[in-house]
Amino acid sequence: MNIMTVKKRKAYELEIIDLAFGGKGLAKPDGFPVFIDRVIPGDIVFAKIIKKKKSWAEGKLIKILKESSFRKQGKCQYCNYCGGCKWQSIGYDLQLEYKKKHVTDSLQHIGGLKDITVKDVIPSDNIYEYRNKMEFSCSIKRWLLPLELENDEIKKDFGIGLHVPGTFDKVIDIKQCEIMPDLGNHILEDVRNFIKASGLLAYHLRTHEGFWRFLMLRHSVAFDTWMVNIVTTYKQMDVVADLAAVLTQKYPQIESVMNNITDAKSGVSAGKEEICLYGEDHIKEKLGKFMFKISANSFFQTNTRSCEKLYSTVSEYAALTGKEVVIDLYSGTGTIPVWLSDQAKMVYGIEIVKSAVADAKQNAMLNGIENCEFLEGDIKDVLPRLKQIPDVMIIDPPRVGMHKEVVQQVLSICPEKIVYVSCNPATLARDLEMLYPKYDIKEIQPIDMFPHTYHIESVALLLKR
Ligand SMILES: C[S@@+](CC[C@H](N)C(=O)[O-])C[C@H]1O[C@@H](n2cnc3c(N)ncnc32)[C@H](O)[C@@H]1O
Question: Whose C-alpha lies nearest to ligand 1, atom 6?
Fold first, then answer.
């Protein structure tokens, strides 16, 4: 028998047979799982084993020996290097099939939940130019693409773009990002040229020196307007005001220019201080008939049109008649409570981030809504104090899912209906397993908010047994 036991630091010819959750390709020489990034089912590859554990290994792609018949030419010139959207070489229909499979597999393997109805994924209308927010990092270490390595004239001392996976300080100097609306690329180019000519350096995460940190762009689909948020280490008004003037004179679509200032050593872009350099400190967006103000650091779903489909699915599952009390856990800037406000008697939102709660109250006011109330704090502390008995509970936790204590609180309140919104099939499966003793999982509707990535949003309908 020819048993191939893979060894660390050795390279092998492997056939990719599946895509695992997390987006990596899977090969199984003699049944032993080897995960490899940036490959797709049907590829025959030469890969080096870089990590080996008892029951699995990780390989690094060295060469594709034979391309899968499923391979498509990715639109983006950086797609083989950038960490942004690694699935561009997979046709969109196949991406959707794998996303659905990842939801079903997670339910089975992580939650032990078999025979749950998982519907076909609702696709994103746009598979390019769909993101309403992009954040580009500035770095004094530009990572060069293989073709750029041959060009001696290219300087490596500045780049603005997206990180190379596995490096914390190197960025690809992105000229054209295909997943944001194209005007963003023109703004990015002008910011790049301005920074290069400014004489000020990009921030360095190790030495903590330098001025320019991030460029964040937000786009409003409904109004086709933009917010430019320049994140710097310290205050230097003359420089950033000049940049704001250059941009706003050229692009009438820019409605807001913000300067977030932070010397925090972590890579976060939210400033300790925020200055409005031009226009207002927010942009407006519409979801359905509702208007929302989005400030630089507010959370807002990044695919506006898919977000409407997500919230429509929440409405459909909640099936409200106007008489119900609804509690929305993890309510962010109040978008779900606002969306449901005219279908319910009262909607309560609970959210931990103070500025998000302030935004939620403003958003309700902006739409003339009086039956939404927003409570600030950690859900595990706030929920027990809320004496309302909800008919329906909406739960939309972050990627890590629900806190165990919150699951217990929900089980003891035990509303008739739960609509669980998830951006992570693994924690969805884990949390549904805990809710399962008291709830029937009627069905799950996956919705694609993130084409060309392995990420998938899902909405689950749970009915009390
Ligand atoms: C996935 S977002 C959902 C936002 C909102 N439902 C939407 O669609 O825009 C999760 C939200 O949970 C909030 N959050 C995270 N942990 C929390 C906690 N322990 N208590 C309350 N809110 C929390 C985050 O600040 C974030 O706004």
Answer: 331
